[in-house]
Amino acid sequence: DAPTISIFLKPPGVIPPGGSTTICCSCQCDNGKFTLHKDGNQLHTLELRDGRAEFSISNATQNDRGVYSCLYQGGDTGSAHSRHLEVKVQEFSLPRPVLAILPGQDVTAGAYVMFRCTITHSEAGCFLYLEGQIESTFIPKEEDYFNISRVLKGDEGRYSCQCFTRNDTFKWSAVSQSLDLVVR
């Protein structure tokens, strides 16, 4: 059985020119190697460490944007591909939003939790990121919050948000400070 391969950005979000991020490839594997592909081309290969490989992007330019994926090659299990991850490099021209978790960052399972992303810009929509997940949650500009009505252990982790406006072109904010949600 081929293992499930995850790919995600750490920290998540759109990167500014000159900024840095790490593309993480991970799987429930003991050994093997990951090859990073960009737009279908092979870039780098790394041996697994603790079931993952980390590929750094530093001093990002427009050349770093594109669609990335990881190819896992293991001893006995053969090979497996991750999903595709789009990396965006954009100037930040909006103010940095502030993330709040209500009622707090330490909650019991089953509790009601609200993630509020506040930005001083009336036209901005925002994305809520959970580190380790490829998907983000869209928060429309009419709302500024996202609710989980019954929080589970699987919802815990490191959250951040990032906002944008879309008129003729996209304009982005920096990523908010990240907050850790603990579910007991």
TrEMBL record:
TM region positions: none
SMART domains: IG
GO BP annotations, alphabetical order: cell surface receptor signaling pathway; immune response-regulating signaling pathway
Alphabetized Pfam families for the sequence: ig
Record's keyword annotation contains Membrane: no
InterPro entries per the UniProt record, alphabetical: Ig-like_dom (IPR007110), Ig-like_dom_sf (IPR036179), Ig-like_fold (IPR013783), Ig-like_Receptors_ImmuneReg (IPR050412), Ig_sub (IPR003599), Immunoglobulin_dom (IPR013151)
Keywords for this protein: Disulfide bond, Glycoprotein, Immunoglobulin domain, Repeat, Signal
Sequence ranges assigned to domain Ig-like in this UniProt record: 3-86
The UniProt record lists the keyword Magnesium: no
PANTHER family, alphabetized: MHC CLASS I NK CELL RECEPTOR, OSTEOCLAST-ASSOCIATED IMMUNOGLOBULIN-LIKE RECEPTOR
Annotated protein name in UniProt: IGSF1 protein
Provenance organism: Brachypteracias leptosomus (short-legged ground-roller)
Designated gene of the protein: Igsf1
